[in-house]
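INFO  loader      accepted 1 record
INFO  loader      residues=283
INFO  predictor   begin
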Amino acid sequence: MLIRWETIFKRALVTAWVIFLAQTVAPPVWGSTVAYSGSIQYARGNYIFDQTTSSMFMFNGLSFSSEGLNLSVSIPVIFQSTPYVSYSGVGIIPSGGSEHTQVSGRKGKNQEVILPEPVDYEQFGIGDPTVSLGIRLLKESKLLPTVQLVVQAKLPLASIQKGFGTGEWDYSGGLSLSKALGKTFLFVDMYYWMLGDLPDLELKDTVSYSIALGQPLSGGKYALLVSYSGSTNIISEVAPPSFLGFGFSYRIDAKKSLMLNASLGLTESVPGFSVSLGWNIGF
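INFO  predictor   done
INFO  writer      dumping tokens
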């Protein structure tokens, strides 16, 4: 689920970048910044199927930040070995691709779904873009965290048959909280997602959540991150998504950083593991 970027994976990268900003980067005098962020992510898993799917994503995004406001747009380039998973607003879901009825007809969790070997599958394509707007509601104080209202939308532009999209709009709204606890940073996100259905497969509206702890090192030049992310049930008879994430970030200078992340899937609806390398370049 890259839960989405801001999937789970995207959020982990953004969180690591926020640690850098909070520690070392002063805002420019005009109070706004523009940044390019991207990442390459590899994910592999059987999900609920008898076949393994390997996926490679390259996310590219632009963001504009001003005092108390953040606007970002991101679009993924996707390579995957089967059409049996789809990319939604909350990340990767085991949809079955053109075999949606096999998933919707599943009887009980932990039952392996047997699907045909894909033939002449076009593995490369563009995913659905996502637009996100964040508005700060509360600035951090000694006792209270920073609170940001976040709304997101995934546009239905990608192919359904190839597994690169769902063919429907996805929307979300929720809160993002951050708080310095001494030298450690705490991040908590919770969003309500309204998901468009696939043909013959209902996607339930869901609540996604994540909690992360970040620890800057060497004055903010490096940082460590550990996170737990998940959501409520999305597909009937499929366990809800759940991840553990680990990250390491390196600040090259005041405007550039690199981030390495890994995650372990804890349930059948997510990849068994994934790794990603991300970067952020400010202008």
